[in-house]
Amino acid sequence: MRFISHACALRKRGQTVMAAAEKPTKGKLLAALDDIEVLSRELIEMLALSRTQKLPQPGEDTEQILELLVQRDKEFQELMQTAVEQGKVHQEMQALEKEVEKRDSDIQQLQKQLKEAEHILATAVYQAKEKLKYIEKARKGSISSEELIKYAHRISASNAVCAPLNWVPGDPRRPYPTDLEMRSGILGNMSNMSTNGVNGHLPGDALAAGRLPDILTPQYPWQSADVSMGILPPHHGSDFGLEPPGHNKENEDDVEAMSTDSSSSSSDSD
Amino acid sequence: MHLNIKHFLAVTISFSLLSSAMAGVMETEEQARHRFQLELEFVQCLANPNYLNFLAQRGYLREKPFVNYLKYLLYWKEPEYAKFLKYPHCLHMLELLQYEHFRKELVNAQCAKFIDEQQILHWQHYSRKRTRLQQALAEQQQQQQQTQAPSHGNTTSK
């Protein structure tokens, strides 16, 4: 009996030592219950023993046990109180946690929406920029429709980009300047020019003589010192209709026969 | 087709004009105009694959000054210059000529012939398309007339 009460006292001391380690309330409650159980059992044993033995035991043990029992009971009650309070706190905590979760999910959703909005705006801005870029590009490259039509007529009427409808293999016309055309141009006549000495004479002469094809060397009314700026030659309408090369033959003294490296001559002729 | 050596002479003369212009020597307006015409002619001659083969076989396409000249000629792509071109195929050839591989390949006569054939076929593309469209249109009209003819018969009988 003393041993048991001694054990209880030891355990209590152990408990106080362990209080720093935060023994869970449940454990404490269970321990207290155990103690009460043990004590009450002891008490009952003692009472039973004293009844059978008919010997009045020294009341100390009984008193001690009773005291311990009362003490344990008090502890138990206190622990129950603590447990109840802890339960309340725990419930509050849970409620708060739920709140926190809710807020968290709200924030996440807002974040998603923000991201989406940013993405959409970024796309819109990007597309707008692209559009502006293209507008700028188109504005830079704008050409009057009249000029376009003129040019389209120029390259089509002479069959330079589209074959004539009655073209058959064997037709000497080509989408590029042919042999004869090349010889009839300025480049083909450079030797004549060097003998004549002065630039610019020959084209005028040849044009005057009506021999040069104005296909390759249209005459430009020059406007400025800038090499290239000139408008299209005045006589461009019908003259750009393709004429058979026979019309504009030069005097062929200076044209030498060529070597026959390429087989193209066979493809040109019948 | 081939051109004689005087053609090359012409090109070298234009080269020298060009180099003098580039060197800061003022070329007269007359000279500038002349050079313009020369270059216009020359760039359009590039549309002729046989001429390109000619140039390649004589080794002109290997010379660095010539390659630089070809690069310089790219100004014909600008709209204000391109509007003077009668044979626009030359621009595509000019672009291709910027690549060394193409210049090397042009030495073969096979290559030039192939390009010539394809070019002519492409040239005929629009006329072919037009004749096809016209045929389709004619067929459609025929069909319409056929479907109309029986219905006329029905209405008159009623």
Automatic annotation (TrEMBL), chain A:
Subcellular location: Nucleus
One Pfam short name: Med4
InterPro entries, A to Z: Mediator_Med4
Coiled coil: 93-127
Nucleus as UniProt keyword: yes
Entry keywords, A to Z: Activator, Coiled coil, Nucleus, Transcription, Transcription regulation
GO biological process, one term: regulation of transcription by RNA polymerase II
Keyword Iron-sulfur part of the UniProt annotation: no
Principal place of residence: nucleus
Residue numbers spanned by region Disordered: 229-270
Low complexity bias (residue ranges): 259-270
Entry GO terms, CC: core mediator complex; mediator complex
GO molecular function, one term: transcription coregulator activity
Assembly description: Component of the Mediator complex.
Record-stated family: Belongs to the Mediator complex subunit 4 family.
Function (record text): Component of the Mediator complex, a coactivator involved in the regulated transcription of nearly all RNA polymerase II-dependent genes. Mediator functions as a bridge to convey information from gene-specific regulatory proteins to the basal RNA polymerase II transcription machinery. Mediator is recruited to promoters by direct interactions with regulatory proteins and serves as a scaffold for the assembly of a functional preinitiation complex with RNA polymerase II and the general transcription factors.
The protein, known as: Mediator of RNA polymerase II transcription subunit 4
Organism for this UniProt entry: Sinocyclocheilus anshuiensis
TrEMBL record, chain B:
UniProt xrefs under InterPro entries: Med31_sf, Mediator_Med31
GO cellular component: mediator complex
Compartments, as annotated in UniProt: Nucleus
Signal peptide location: 1-23
Biased composition annotated in UniProt, kind: Low complexity: 135-149
Gene Ontology terms, MF aspect: transcription coregulator activity
Region entry Disordered, spans: 135-158
Pfam families named in the record: Med31
Main location per the UniProt record: nucleus
Parts forming coiled coils: none
Biological process according to GO: regulation of DNA-templated transcription
Alphabetic keyword roster: Activator, Nucleus, Signal, Transcription, Transcription regulation
Family statement: Belongs to the Mediator complex subunit 31 family.
Function description: Component of the Mediator complex, a coactivator involved in the regulated transcription of nearly all RNA polymerase II-dependent genes. Mediator functions as a bridge to convey information from gene-specific regulatory proteins to the basal RNA polymerase II transcription machinery. Mediator is recruited to promoters by direct interactions with regulatory proteins and serves as a scaffold for the assembly of a functional preinitiation complex with RNA polymerase II and the general transcription factors.
Oligomer status and interactors: Component of the Mediator complex.
Protein name: Mediator of RNA polymerase II transcription subunit 31
Source organism of the structure: Sinocyclocheilus anshuiensis
Gene: LOC107699947
